[in-house]
Amino acid sequence: NQKSTDLEKAYDYMIRSQTPESKKDTLSLLCKPKEE
User: Fold this and answer.
1) Residue 23: Cβ-neighbour burial (10 angstroms; 0-12, 13-18, 19+)
2) Four-residue CA torsion sign, 14, 12, 9, 35
3) This protein's superkingdom (predicted)?
């Protein structure tokens, strides 16, 4: 499956352009349950 969506490309770019610290924050945000 080699067709990646614009969303995936944008996400990949966002991750690559971040520092390790902010990347960790992003991942924790994404993995966080919707309910708080």
Assistant:
1) middle
2) negative
3) Eukaryota
Give the Cα separation of 5 and 36 in Å (integer). Answer: 30
pLDDT digit string, tens, across residues 9-18: 888 887 787 7
CA distance 30 to 36: 13
Region of 6 please: left (phi>0), alpha (psi -120 to 50) or beta.
alpha
Kindly report the pTM of this predicted structure.
0.35
